[in-house]
TrEMBL record:
<dbReference type="InterPro" id="IPR050295">
    <property type="entry name" value="Plant_2OG-oxidoreductases"/>
</dbReference>
<keyword id="KW-0408">Iron</keyword>
<comment type="similarity">
    <text>Belongs to the iron/ascorbate-dependent oxidoreductase family.</text>
</comment>
<dbReference type="InterPro" id="IPR005123">
    <property type="entry name" value="Oxoglu/Fe-dep_dioxygenase_dom"/>
</dbReference>
<dbReference type="InterPro" id="IPR027443">
    <property type="entry name" value="IPNS-like_sf"/>
</dbReference>
<keyword id="KW-0479">Metal-binding</keyword>
<dbReference type="Pfam" id="PF03171">
    <property type="entry name" value="2OG-FeII_Oxy"/>
</dbReference>
<keyword id="KW-0560">Oxidoreductase</keyword>
<dbReference type="GO" id="GO:0016491">
    <property type="term" value="F:oxidoreductase activity"/>
</dbReference>
<dbReference type="GO" id="GO:0046872">
    <property type="term" value="F:metal ion binding"/>
</dbReference>
<protein>
    <recommendedName>
        <fullName>Fe2OG dioxygenase domain-containing protein</fullName>
    </recommendedName>
</protein>
<feature type="domain" description="Fe2OG dioxygenase">
    <location>
        <begin position="108"/>
        <end position="208"/>
    </location>
</feature>
<dbReference type="InterPro" id="IPR044861">
    <property type="entry name" value="IPNS-like_FE2OG_OXY"/>
</dbReference>
Length: 259
């Protein structure tokens, strides 16, 4: 998948142009920064985003991309379901709770493939690959090409994540925080750039069907006063996040009841 992604980014600008500057729900789009229409400064990042489930989409070039993508997305969906079974159990719920309540294993569940490419930057200390943010969705399964750059906020400090060979990193997303009424927190992370090597990261975001309302699970809320977040559909949340430049957990904060 990493090799095919490199080949995609290596295509001539002309070949990628058909996917450039498209809208949030267009099947395939690529570009620079996060949302160049609203970002105040551009980010040192090229991206490719593909809606791969419920409808599978893939660019026609490079020629091997589609087949590898399809298999990669199927396997990561299985992995996400398995992780969600474990997370349900960890909350004292039935193993199938999250998958069933949110329709994660249904034919309508949503999966977004996001590939990031951060070329070497002559002055890395002046640039940012991706600013601090948390991901939408329940879980993001992330793979990296062995070059460091991801940092996770832990106890108020940025911690470098060493990309272990042949490993995945799993980030909890904002919908996990909403669903669990804050028992699982979405993780704030960012990507910094370097002046030596091109970094590639590939994430798949796993969520419910786009029109499913995600709200705190009744089983995890003691009473009305304990409900910490407003419900929102996955679709509306994606639109909300895309309408602003990325900034920490500012999207989720809008749904949080102040204590
Ligand atoms: O490049 C990375 O490691 C992080 C990518 C990321 O956070 C994202 O695509 O949401
Ligand atoms: Fe992210």
């Amino acid at each position: 998948m990493v090799r095919e992604t490199e080949s995609f980014f290596d295509l001539r600008g002309e070949e990628k142009k058909q996917y450039a500057g498209k809208k949030l729900f267009d099947p395939i789009r690529c570009g620079t920064s996060f949302n160049a229409n609203v970002d105040k400064t551009l980010l040192w990042r090229d991206y490719l985003k593909i809606h791969v489930h419920p409808h599978f989409n893939a660019p026609a070039k490079p020629s091997g991309f589609s087949k590898v993508l399809q298999e990669y997305c199927e396997k990561t969906r299985e992995m996400a379901s398995e992780l969600l079974r474990g997370i349900s159990e960890s909350l004292g719920l039935e193993e199938r709770y999250i998958n069933e309540k949110l329709g994660v294993e249904s034919s309508e569940s949503h999966q977004l493939f996001v590939a990031n490419m951060y070329p070497p930057c002559p002055q890395p200390e002046l640039a940012m690959g991706l600013p601090p943010h948390s991901d939408h969705g329940l879980l993001t399964i992330l793979m990296q090409n062995g070059i460091q750059g991801l940092q996770v906020m832990h106890k108020g400090k940025w911690v470098h994540i060493n990309p272990l060979p042949n490993s995945f990193l799993v980030n909890t997303g904002d919908h996990m925080e909403i669903l669990t009424n804050g028992k699982y927190k979405s993780v704030v992370h960012r990507a910094v750039v370097n002046n030596k090597a091109t970094r590639i990261s590939i994430g798949t975001a796993h969520g419910p069907p786009l029109d499913t309302l995600v709200s705190p699970a009744k089983e995890l809320v003691a009473d009305d006063a304990d409900q910490a977040y407003l419900g929102i559909t996955y679709r509306n949340y994606l639109e909300l996040q895309q309408s602003k430049s990325l900034s920490g957990k500012s999207c989720l904060d809008r749904l949080r009841f102040s204590m």
